[in-house]
Amino acid sequence: MTAAPRVLLSVRAGCPYCDAKRAELAARGARVTEIAVGTQGPAVTELLKLTGGRPIVPVVVEGGHVAVAPDGGSAF
């Protein structure tokens, strides 16, 4: 039996795209580590590196692949 994939999910409160991505990952049994992004701090700095400077969520990191707002996103 293969372990569920590990996924890093960056989100912000109130983002419907984040909620949908969270539900999708849960439905497929992914083991998710969620990072709630505020408006400042180290989480924002790292997220901006992943998005090429775009302030948008959700961002999904899985298996070395980064998906920035794969199904639409919200600014943070």
Q: Can you tell me about this structure?
A:
This protein has one domain: Glutaredoxin. It is α+β, with helices and mostly antiparallel strands. The longest helix is centred in the N-terminal third of the chain and has 12 residues, at 16-27. The mean pLDDT is 91. 28% of the residues lie in helices and 32% in strands. It has helices spanning 16-27, 42-50; strands at residues 6-11, 31-36, 56-57, 59-62, 65-68, 74-75. The radius of gyration is 12 Å and the shape is globular. It contains two helices and six strands. The chain has a four-stranded mixed beta sheet, with helices on both faces.
Mean pLDDT: 91
Would you list the SSEs in sequence order as H and E? EHEHEEEE
Q: In CATH, what is the class?
A: Alpha Beta
Unreliable stretches (pLDDT < 50, length at least 5) are none
